[in-house]
Amino acid sequence: MQLAPRNIRSRLGTAVCLLLAAAPGARAQTSGPARWQLDVAGLLYAERNQANVFEPQGRITRLFANGQSLSATLSFDAITGASPTGAIPTTTVQTTTSPSGNTQTTSVDTVPTNSFKDARGALDLAWQKPFGRFVTTSVGTHFSREKDYRSLGASGKLSLQMMHRLTTITVGGGYNSDRVFPSGGTRVPLSDGTTFTGTDSNPKDVGTVLVGVSRILTRRWMVALDATQTREHGYLTEPYKVISLVDPETGDPTGVLTEKRPGKRRRRDLLASSVYHFETDVLYASDRFYWDDWGIRSNTMDVRYRHELTRHRYIEPHVRYYIQSRANFFRYHIPNGASLPEFASADSRLGPRQSATVGGTFGFRLRNRPGEWAIRAEGIVQWGIAHPREAIGNQRFTNLSPPVGIGSVTALYTLKF
């Protein structure tokens, strides 16, 4: 995963899973004969002048008459392109070498990037079972592997319906035991990148707990509130990111250092959501507030509106806005000769930034053909929050985190048999 933003994969997995979950007929049945359901999805994702992703995914589910379901999801994604290194743009041409030995030249006033190529495979298993009328449990396992990362995890969830089934309380948790294998070895943090720790495999453990409550207010309106806490421990540094050393007088780069992040992180978020069902249409709205002990705060507002065109066709416009503050150890550069901080990163994902998303889904069935289709397309603009002209010594830059245009298309096919 050379320099590939790992949260790309998280975003893509979320997008595909949302389509798999929201597609007509994609929910487990609680009555009727046992049956099978096949969901196949494919996603194309492209960042302008940066990452390009292709992710096919397939899920087979056994639906039982008593409400049980057993599913297996197999996914593969291939990522190519370039990713920002963390170094600052300069007024001269820069030539850099990636950990894999690839050499890349960066133009004047352009954010330095390194090219990468990676592939990942993943398998997820899930089992859901109701106990009586009011309790439902689900358990799952996950395994994924890519060139420099392996993830193995398990999760469980219990939902209890009460107050005449108008209120549902959900508790759950999960644990991942991951390993990071940086290409070329693990580099010493805050060094020039030519010294190594001698450790090829670095542990990373992630534990998550979830508590949620949903309430049916009227026959058309349901609201929910979910709270999640995640604790990460281990190797949390991005092994391929760097931070520029600059001359404090001129602002000219004099070299780069590898970044260093804390070995612990505690994340928390609150998600408030609402679903309102009109005569035929459905309005979905949510607001997620996130904070962690690295100093990052973010807010995500999301609205979708499903409009039924005919009995077998619908459209679902979607808008989303995201804003984030910087981590307390985020910095664009380090003055040459200054005392090194305990932690430092120039990764734009830890800096102040915003994004806006506009898109929609079109769902339909073909006449005299089995199965249901859904196609989702989105355009995203992501940009850093910076002063009109960032000053470094005598040099000034219009934006050290310039806007990035992103496009994605996801297609889903669902078949019951």
Explain briefly what this protein structure is.
This protein has 417 residues and is mainly beta. It has one helix spanning 6-22; strands at residues 35-47, 52-63, 69-84, 94-97, 103-106, 113-131, 135-146, 149-162, 167-180, 202-216, 221-234, 242-246, 253-258, 264-277, 282-292, 297-310, 313-324, 333-335, 353-364, 372-384, 390-392, 395-397, 404-416.
What is the β-strand count?
A: 23
Average pLDDT metric: 87
CATH 2nd-level architecture: Beta Barrel
Q: What percentage of residues falls in helices of 4 or more residues?
A: under 10%
Largest sheet: 16 strands, antiparallel, barrel
Shape: globular
Task: Return residue spans where pLDDT drops below 50 for at least 5 consecutive residues.
Answer: 1-5, 24-31
Taking the alpha carbons of the first and last residues, their distance comes to 38 Å
Written description of the protein model:
It is a single chain. This protein has 417 residues and is mainly beta. It has one domain: Porin, CATH 2.40.160. It is built from 1 helix and 23 strands. A 16-stranded antiparallel β-barrel has the order 1-2-3-6-7-8-9-10-11-14-15-16-17-19-20-23. A 3-stranded mixed beta sheet has the order 13-12-18, with no helix packed on it. A hairpin with a 5-residue loop joins strand 4 and strand 5. The relative contact order is 0.14. The N terminus is likely disordered.
